[in-house]
C-alpha cells in the first residue's frame, strides 16, 4: 500500500501525467466530432447495413490511444532518464513490488481517463449524428453499454502495454516509436501482407482485435468483441510480463 | 576516531561489508575482488580516481547492480533481504536524479510514502537541509548545491542507520562542503555508518575517519586516516649536489629509493635527512641542499593510485 501511494505521488505530481490525461480525452472527442462531419453523405432513409454510430464515434481513439499509451510509458521512462530509478530501488529493493505498484497506479489513472474519454467521445459523436438527422445510439440500446465498457478496457489495456514497453525500452522516445508502430503502422500495413500473414494481422493483431470490443454491430472481418478484448488483455499481460522480466534481471 | 561509547550502544549499529566483490563488464573488471568494511560511528571515506569503481561498488551495495562474484551487505544482509530498507539505509547516488518538473516537496513525499512516512517527516528533513523555503519550487530550478541538499534530505527520510553518498561534495561551494561535512560528523556521532566516496584526497583529509582507497577496482589501502598518513607519508628528503651520480650510486648501495625531481634535484624516500647526510659525508660528497619534505596526502594518493590509474597522465 505504501509503495502504491508513493507511485501515485510520483505520477500525480508531474504535469506530463495530466497533460496526457487531458490530451487523451480531448483528442478523442475532437477526432470523433470532426470524423462525423462526413455524415452528410449518409441518408437517414437508406442507412448502411452495418450502421454503428457507437463504433463510429469511438473511431476518434486513433490518436488518443497513442497518448494514453505514452501515459503508461511515462510512468517509468523518466526515472531511467534522470536516474531516479536508483533511489526508487534503494527505497523499495523488491523490484516486482515497485513495478506492480506502478502498474496499479497506471491502471487506476488509465481506467478513469478511459471511462471519461469513452463517455465524452460517445456523447459527442451521438450529438453530431443527431444533428445530421440520423438515428443516434443511446446508452440503453442493446449492446451499447457493452461496447462502451469494451472501449474503456481497450484504452486501459493500451496504457498498460505502454507501461510494459516503457519498462523494456527504458526510453521515452523509443516507447513512442514502438507505440506508433504497434498502434498505427502495423494495423494499417499488416493486413496488406500477402496471404495468411495478412489475414492474421487483419483479425488477430491485438490492437486490431481489441477494436472489435467496441463494435455494437458484429463485423464479419473482425473477431467477436469478447475475443477481441481477451486478445488485447493477453497482449497487455505479455508486455507486462516482458517488462517485469527485463526489470528484474537488468542492472540499473 | 574510535566510536564514542554512546555510539556503540546506539540502536543504529549496522555496518557495511564487502567480501570478494567483483563486477565484470565484458572483459573489463570495474570492481575486482574487493573486500572492506565500514563501521558504525565513523565516517568512512571511499577514495579512488575516476573510473576506479566507486559508483559501481555503491550500486552493488544498493542492489542496483548485480555482482559478478562476491557480495556486499548491510549488517550481514543483502539490501533486498532487509525488513525495512528505507529505514535501514539512505542514499544519495546522483543529485541530478530528480524529475525536473516535480517540486522538492512532492519528490520527498513520494519516497516518504514508500517508507511508510508522511508529510511531517518531509517537513522535518526539509528543515534539516535548509530547503523549507524552496520546498514548493520545481527541483529542476534548483542549483546543484540545492539538488545536493535535496538528495541528502531524501537519504535522511527514513532516519536510517546507514548513509551512503556518492561524491556528495562534488560541485559544492565551500559553504556547502562545510555543511555536508558537519552533517556527516553529526550523523556519525549518533552512531550511524557513513560511507561516502570521492576522487579527491583533499576532501577526505578533513572529513573521513577511516579510508578505503581503491584503484582500478582493487583495494589499495584500508585503514584509519591517521594510520594511512603515518604508513604512507614516507619521510622524504630533497638533496641537491654537484656530484649527483656519486650520490645516487651511494644511496642505491644503501638500498635507499630515490627519484629525480623536475628541477634536477633528488627526492629520497623513506629516510631522514641525517641518514642522507651521513652517507654523503662517508663518500665525501658535498651537499648543496638537504631539505626535509612531507608529502601532501594528495601526493600520497596520486603515488599510490598512479600505477593503477587508467587515465593517469604521464609524469613530466
Ligand atoms: N554499465 C556499464 N557498462 C560498462 N562499463 C561500465 C558500466 N558502468 C561502469 N563501467 C566501467 O566501470 C569502471 C568503473 O566505473 P565507476 O563509475 O564505478 O567509477 P567511479 O570510481 O565511480 O568513477 P568516477 O570517479 O568518475 O565517478 C569504469 O571504467 C566504467 O567505464
Ligand atoms: Mg562515480
TrEMBL record, chain A:
The keyword Membrane applies. The chain crosses the membrane at residues 16-35, 55-77, 98-123, 143-164, 176-197, 226-247. Keywords: Membrane, Transmembrane, Transmembrane helix. PANTHER family: INTEGRAL MEMBRANE PROTEIN-RELATED (PTHR37305), MEMBRANE PROTEIN (PTHR37305:SF1). This is ABC-2 family transporter protein.
Automatic annotation (TrEMBL), chain B:
Gene3D superfamilies: P-loop containing nucleotide triphosphate hydrolases (3.40.50.300). Residues 16-241 form the ABC transporter domain. GO terms for molecular function: ATP binding; ATP hydrolysis activity. The keyword Transport applies. InterPro entries: AAA+_ATPase, ABC_transporter-like_ATP-bd, ABC_transporter-like_CS, P-loop_NTPase. The keyword Amino-acid biosynthesis does not apply. Keywords: ATP-binding, Nucleotide-binding, Transport. PROSITE patterns: ABC_TRANSPORTER_1, ABC_TRANSPORTER_2. Belongs to the ABC transporter superfamily. PANTHER family: ABC TRANSPORTER, ATP-BINDING PROTEIN (PTHR43335:SF4). This is ABC-2 type transport system ATP-binding protein.
Amino acid at each position: 500500500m505504501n509503495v502504491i501511494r508513493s507511485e501515485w505521488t510520483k505520477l500525480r505530481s508531474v504535469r506530463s501525467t495530466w497533460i496526457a490525461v487531458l490530451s487523451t480525452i480531448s483528442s478523442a472527442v475532437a477526432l470523433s466530432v470532426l470524423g462525423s462531419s462526413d455524415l452528410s453523405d449518409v441518408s437517414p432513409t437508406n442507412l448502411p447495413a452495418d450502421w454503428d454510430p457507437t463504433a463510429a464515434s469511438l473511431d476518434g481513439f486513433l490518436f488518443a490511444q497513442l497518448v494514453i499509451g505514452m501515459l503508461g510509458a511515462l510512468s517509468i521512462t523518466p526515472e531511467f532518464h534522470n536516474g531516479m530509478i536508483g533511489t526508487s530501488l534503494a527505497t523499495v529493493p523488491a523490484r516486482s513490488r515497485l513495478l506492480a505498484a506502478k502498474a496499479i497506479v497506471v491502471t487506476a489513472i488509465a481506467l478513469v481517463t478511459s471511462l471519461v474519454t469513452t463517455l465524452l467521445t460517445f456523447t459527442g459523436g451521438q450529438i453530431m449524428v443527431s444533428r445530421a438527422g440520423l438515428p443516434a445510439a443511446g446508452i440503453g440500446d442493446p449492446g451499447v453499454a457493452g461496447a462502451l465498457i469494451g472501449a474503456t478496457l481497450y484504452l486501459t489495456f493500451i496504457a498498460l502495454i505502454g507501461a510494459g514497453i516503457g519498462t523494456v525500452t527504458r526510453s521515452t522516445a523509443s516507447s513512442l516509436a514502438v507505440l506508433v508502430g504497434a498502434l498505427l503502422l502495423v494495423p494499417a500495413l499488416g493486413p496488406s501482407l500477402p496471404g495468411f500473414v495478412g489475414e492474421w494481422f487483419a483479425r488477430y493483431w491485438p490492437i486490431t482485435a481489441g477494436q472489435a470490443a467496441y463494435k455494437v454491430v458484429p463485423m464479419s472481418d473482425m473477431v467477436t468483441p469478447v475475443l477481441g478484448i481477451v486478445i488485447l488483455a493477453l497482449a497487455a499481460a505479455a508486455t507486462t510480463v516482458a517488462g517485469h522480466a527485463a526489470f528484474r534481471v537488468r542492472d540499473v | 576516531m574510535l566510536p564514542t561509547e554512546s555510539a556503540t550502544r546506539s540502536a543504529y549499529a549496522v555496518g557495511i561489508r564487502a567480501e570478494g566483490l567483483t563486477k565484470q563488464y565484458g572483459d573489463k573488471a570495474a570492481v575486482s575482488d574487493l573486500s572492506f568494511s565500514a563501521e558504525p560511528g565513523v565516517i568512512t571515506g571511499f577514495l579512488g580516481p575516476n573510473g576506479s569503481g566507486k559508483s559501481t561498488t555503491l550500486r552493488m551495495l544498493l542492489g542496483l547492480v548485480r555482482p559478478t562474484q562476491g557480495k556486499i551487505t548491510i549488517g550481514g544482509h543483502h539490501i533486498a533481504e532487509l525488513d525495512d530498507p528505507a529505514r535501514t539505509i539512505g542514499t544519495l547516488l546522483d543529485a541530478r536524479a530528480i524529475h525536473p518538473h516535480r517540486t522538492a516537496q512532492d519528490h520527498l513525499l513520494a519516497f516518504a510514502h514508500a517508507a511508510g512516512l508522511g508529510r511531517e517527516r518531509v517537513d522535518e528533513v526539509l528543515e534539516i537541509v535548509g530547503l523549507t523555503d524552496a520546498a514548493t519550487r520545481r527541483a529542476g530550478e534548483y542549483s546543484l548545491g540545492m539538488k545536493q541538499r535535496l538528495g541528502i534530505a531524501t537519504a535522511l527520510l527514513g532516519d536510517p542507520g546507514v548513509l551512503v553518498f556518492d561524491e556528495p561534495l562534488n560541485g559544492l561551494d565551500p559553504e556547502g562542503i562545510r555543511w555536508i561535512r558537519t552533517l556527516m560528523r553529526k550523523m556519525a556521532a549518533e552512531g550511524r555508518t557513513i560511507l561516502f566516496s570521492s576522487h579527491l584526497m583533499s576532501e577526505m583529509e578533513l572529513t573521513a575517519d577511516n579510508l578505503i582507497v581503491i584503484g582500478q577496482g582493487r583495494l589499495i589501502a584500508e585503514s584509519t586516516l591517521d594510520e594511512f598518513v603515518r604508513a604512507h607519508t614516507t619521510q622524504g628528503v630533497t638533496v641537491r649536489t654537484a656530484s649527483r651520480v656519486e650520490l645516487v650510486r651511494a644511496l642505491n648501495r644503501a638500498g635507499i629509493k630515490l627519484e629525480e625531481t623536475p628541477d634536477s634535484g633528488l627526492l629520497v624516500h623513506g629516510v631522514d635527512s641525517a641518514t642522507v647526510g651521513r652517507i654523503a659525508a662517508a663518500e665525501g660528497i658535498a651537499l648543496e641542499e638537504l631539505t626535509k619534505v612531507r608529502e601532501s596526502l594528495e601526493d600520497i594518493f596520486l603515488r599510490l593510485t598512479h600505477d593503477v590509474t587508467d587515465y593517469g597522465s604521464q609524469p613530466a
